Amino acid sequence: MAAPQETTHHIRVRSTQLEMPAPHGSRSPEDFDRKLRDAQEELERIQQEKEELARKKHEAEELASRKHRFITRHVELVEKLTSSLTMIDRGLSEIRSEAEDLQQCREVFASHLSKLGKIIPENWPMDALTDRLDKANASLDIAEDDFDQAATHFNGTRSGSIFGRATGRGSRAKTHGGEFFSNLRNGFAFNFPIVALGSLALIVYLLK
């Protein structure tokens, strides 16, 4: 009896059937690396945003500081310029007023000098000496009083050194220091023709 023949059956098992299913929730190394890169990129983005915010904050603070410095300088300079303009206007007003007083003083002094220059005692006749001397002394007194009042008026001003000291007949000048120029400003110029005529008459009388 012939021995029975053994039959061999080959079972083909696909490789996929031998792979064990991955446990639930596990990640592959590739997924981990990707998540890590994403996290790093997010951190870098956050860091960049943080640095950008810090830069903008610094710029804002610097602008605020510059603005504050500008406002401070602006206020200080405006105050200085305003104060200086006020002082300049006041100084110019004083200078103009002083110049006007000097001009008026010059005219009066020139008038006195002209009168005094025409007084020549050597030509006075003996029989009219007393009368001429009284009138000449009156002219001297008026000129001297005007000089003392002018010296008092300009004392302590820029032009004070022009007049030096008063002549010594300063009682009226001290009592009426501003009267001379007050009269000039308040109407002497208006009455100047009358004064001039009176002075002319006095000169003619003295020259007789």
Shape: rod-shaped
Radius of gyration: 56 Å
Distance between the terminal alpha carbons, to the nearest Å?
A: 202 Å
The number of helical segments is 6
The poorly predicted ranges are 15-19, 173-177, 187-198
Q: How much helix is in the residues? A: over 70%
Largest sheet: none
- Element order: H for helix, E for strand: HHHHHH
Structural class: mainly alpha
In round numbers, the mean pLDDT is 78
Proportion of β residues?
under 5%
The number of E-state strands comes to 0
Descriptive account of the structure:
By secondary structure, the protein is mainly alpha-helical. Helices cover 75% and strands 0% of the residues. It is built from 6 helices and no strands. It is rod-shaped and about 150 Å long. The N and C termini lie far apart (202 Å). About 11% of the residues have low confidence.
Keywords:
0% strand; 208 residues; 6 helices; rod-shaped; mainly alpha
Structural topology:
Blueprint: H1 15-18, H2 29-117, H3 129-154, H4 160-163, H5 171-175, H6 179-206
Helix pairs in contact: 2-3, 2-6, 3-6
Provide a quick synopsis of the model.
This protein has 208 residues and is mainly α. Helix 3 runs antiparallel to helix 6.
